[in-house]
Design brief:
mainly alpha
């Protein structure tokens, strides 16, 4: 358990949490400005599809690492190294993702 590099995982998770609304924001103008069956529309649809694929995976991964860290803390009484950074990055990433998605849907 202590071998999990929570700091490196936290940075990766934060990047992916913020990538999801970024892909949605980037895909919207591409899809709207493209004709129906053009490469541009395909790229926009692909970017939007990646967000639908990444969002559940990032949520399940975050829950998994939180469960591992809290379980280790409960059994040993000590948090694994870097676990606090992971918890903080998860909260910030989720809030950033939720804010980005809320602003996107508000702008529709």
């Amino acid at each position: 358990m202590t071998e999990i590099p929570f700091r490196k995982v936290a940075v990766l998770m934060l990047i992916i949490w913020w990538l999801v609304p970024g892909l949605i924001w980037a895909a919207r103008p591409i899809i709207q400005s493209a004709a129906e069956y053009t490469p541009q529309a395909t790229i926009g649809t692909f970017m939007f599809g990646w967000t639908l694929f990444l969002l559940p995976i990032i949520a399940m991964t975050t829950v998994y690492f939180l469960w591992k860290g809290f379980r280790h803390w409960k059994l040993t009484g000590v948090s694994p190294k870097g676990f606090q950074a992971f918890v903080c990055a998860s909260i910030v990433g989720f809030c950033g993702c939720a804010t980005g998605l809320a602003l996107f849907f508000h702008s529709l």
